[in-house]
Amino acid sequence: MKTMQTLGTLSNLIDVNEKEGWFHLHSKECSYIIQIHPLGYPLHVYWGTRLHDPVEVETIIPDFAQETNLDKLPQEYPQYGSGDFRNPAYQVVLEDGSRITELRYKSYRLLKGKRPLTGSPATYAENDSEAMTLELELEDSFSGLDVVLSYTIFAEFNVIVRSARFFNRGVKTLKLLRAHSASLDFQSGVYDAVYLSGAWTREASIQRSRLNPGTLRIESRRGMSDHQLNPFLALVAPDANEHYGEVYGFSFVYSGNFSIDAEVDSMNSTRVTVGINSFDFSWRLLPGEEFQTPEVVMAYSKAGLGEMSRTYHRLYRTRLCRGAYRDRNRPILVNNWEATYFHFDAEKLEEIAKAGGELGIELFVLDDGWFGKRDDDKTSLGDWVEHSKKSPLGLQDLSRRIQQHIPQFGLWVEPEMVSPDSDLYRNHPDWCLHVEGRRRTEARTQLVLDYSRQEVVDYIFQALSDVFTRAQVTYVKWDMNRGLTEIGSAGREPERRAGDRTPVRSGIVSAA
Fold it and tell me: How many Å from the N-terminal Cα to the C-terminal Cα in the chain?
């Protein structure tokens, strides 16, 4: 890593003025500027329409040198306890019980392209020429805590992709109580907030309201992101619409508990923080260990909400989605659920497939009810073997019959779940999330399997692999239908059974 000494343009996407201490990230139509305060705090200077030369950048950068009150400085990754009373980006407990840390700038690194993110889904660059990454290393010399802030700029997209990595360089254990992926201070509080709420059958309802002094919070505490509140927030100019006006979008690429806060303070500035929900979260960071946060994709639009949406759609279709079907048309499918619900046999399914084949359907998806004794939604989750009455000759035979009419065969699964009325639960009642001595909350007549136990992972992987292979499955419809309760794991040491954890990552996945 480098310390700031000289003036120089180091790439076509990121300019660095080491003498003045600023970084200018820029795509075709967007600029993002960070400045290092003389005391070592990374400050947020600008995010908006593209600036084209150093002179233009210099005219925008204010003189923060004389301001030392952290409560008034626009920061990139603020702490709590040393003068800033707004929402912090992170919080750490030291072994002496204190919660005071103070991250200051140490050095920077420029990387071609974008490094993979460990343990989480993430955007990517197909080659090093289409993106560049700035890493700012911050340190708290007292505790030995280091944090690396990562910023990726794509040449063809008006986005900044942010995340943070925590390192314990000290000799004592640290405990993370809050580890957000990004924080951003706007000098104005005059914005509307746009976010997505909903429920089953009315997902992604658009909500829009004026930000007022105080905090607007979008969050999930269900162990997963879901349709109640989407992990997304946009700040928009009051006069902005689909086609006009400035928009700043924040999309969190994570499927566990999350929170997005927009706080307007007494000075009418706005702080947005995005990351893993600090509610019921903690993580022990032993000496030498690191913790990687998920990433936030921040999109800028000067032409309204429509342009922001199209930016996200283009980026996610081409640089978040992966696999053989990223750039190919998905097969046209028929699903038997509304036609049969649980009441089907091989003959009825083949009849649907025959009609579908005549219409040009390319993929038949067999939904819930093909396994165990699953004749209703109260039984058999976890028993991933063929229903003996519905397919007495097995899924291999059923798939062969279907493929006489429709070329591809897909299958529904919900592998996070177990029914109390199942052979799996009767044989392994300890395999679900539970806390000894506490009741087990059922929702949709099901419990959640404990994937922190290797034996659970091994069983599910083997059971489903066997079925998918026999049935020649080319598509998986993966459901996840309830939140997490009684979160604990008897298979882990006591200090990591509940509090010291990240939320279970779950979601709805379609794969081919």
Answer: 41
CA-closest candidate to residue 144, choices 103, 202, 85: 103
- Return the DSSP state at 51: P
Give residues with Cβ within 8 angstroms of 309, minimum separation 6. Answer: none
Angle between helices 454-471 and 394-402 (to 10 degrees): 40
This prediction's pTM: 0.92
Q: Which residue has the tokens 């020649």?
A: 472
Contact 272, 186 (CB under 8 A): yes
Angstrom distance (rounded) from CA 414 to CA 296: 28
CB 89 within 8 A of CB 273: yes
Contact 158, 310 (CB under 8 A): no
Q: What are phi and psi of 411, to 5 degrees?
A: -140, 145
Full DSSP string of 392-432: TTHHHHHHHHHTTTSSEEEEEE-TTEE-SSSHHHHH-GGGB
Report yes or no: 20 and 36 within 8 Å, Cβ to Cβ.
no
**DSSP designation for 342:** T
Distance CA 371, CA 444 (A): 17
Question: How far is residue 377's CA from residue 312's CA, in Å, rounded to a whole number?
Answer: 36
pLDDT band at 493 (very low <50, low <70, confident <90, very high): low
DSSP character at residue 470 = H
**Residue whose tokens read 């919900």:** 414
Query: Residue 205: what are its φ and ψ, rounded to 5°?
Result: -80, 130
* Residue 204 Rama label (left phi>0; alpha psi -120 to 50; beta): left
The Cα 496–Cα 284 span in angstroms is 8
Tokens of 332: 């046209």
The reported pLDDT for the residue numbered 494 is 63
Question: pLDDT, tens digit, for every residue of 253-289?
Answer: 999 999 999 999 999 999 999 999 999 999 999 999 9
The tens digit of pLDDT for each residue in 95-143 reads: 999 999 999 999 999 999 999 998 899 999 999 999 999 999 999 999 9
